[in-house]
Amino acid sequence: MEPSTTGSGGFALSLRVMRLAKPSIVPNWPLQVEEADYGSEQLMKYRKEDIATANGLYNFPFSELLTVPQNFGSIYLGETFSSFINVQNESTQTVRDVVLKTDLQTSSQRVPLSNSNGQAMISKLVPGENISEVIHHEIKELGSQLLVCSVSYINTSGEKQMFRKYFKFLVLKPLDVKTKFFTTEEEDIFLEAQITNTTPHSLHMQKVLLAPSPLYQVTDLNISTTNDNTIFSESCDYMNPDDTWQYLYKITPKSRSAERGNAKGVSSVGKLDIMWLSNFGEKGRLQSSQLQRLVQPSKELIATVHSMPHFITSHEQFRVVLRLRNTTDKKYNLHITLQTIPKSGLVWIGDIRRLVGDVLPGNFVDVPLDVLPIRSGVWEIGEITILNLINNKEFIYTSIGQILVGLPDP
Fold it and tell me: Which of 52, 116, 163, 394 makes the best surface tag, with the fewest CB within 10 Å?
């Protein structure tokens, strides 16, 4: 507990405020000596008798003692602020209708914390008696905050008296969170979250989840493939100071049309929910604001390489499987034309003009393409022109990938 005491200041009542906080371990700074050193016996005896030395562990940097914080101190965002407030009658007169009111003043609002809601906590307080209450509040804002405690009562003359005391403390940021969205050629969406421990002590990370908005569903890619635990297993789930952990999530829109329906072109994906425990088990929780991504106009027809070799020798024919995906809500009837890039070391084999056929909305078709490498090197595969026969719209892909062609064995 961190005591903060105020005098009566001429009033019949006194106010004491103590922040409820966990203690910390007293460090031990062992003095290293050798038997050959002058005065080593006295120093060794002193070290063994030192109250800060752990029993039998003379060189251990921590003692067996706990220390209570000596000031109101600071607190981290996401933790729970707890305080014990006591009002005592230190006068010789009996007072009536004692009201204790506690508020937390932040940079943006004033939050009432009292359990009494401004009502009298006791009708009569005789000399030597006291009243108290414990308040709890989850800290949700950074920066300096002010605990305002007000006490009012009626003295023996029937006069209402009141005094107010202030206790200032600082709210620090425990974690630094950076996020970034990635979109693949097939329009798969990934969210990368980098979380850094900015506190001076280790944190036990309990949970890091992405709570999706109604437009999306999320696949947590941080789950181990062998069990249901996260990739940060129980043996390494303590994040040391200045450590940065990276989390990855796959985000799938429930409806592409609904995602792009926002006139501003920005879509809310969801919120990161982070929970942790600090040194002595104090719980902390942070929830980010809505993560937003810029929705790019979708390609009507997406052409990607579904399969092909990464290395081939010259004059060895290989096959490329081209996947054509229709992302619109209309049927396509596709015709493909293959063109050889000038001075390329690759040539197409078979029909260079062919009818692919119908591709229904949201579906895809795989087109096998045979290629013959005639020279070694790294070569672009293309160019490909695809025509939608229904509306005569062309889609030109100058390159669909690269391949390394080596020399054949001698």
Answer: 394
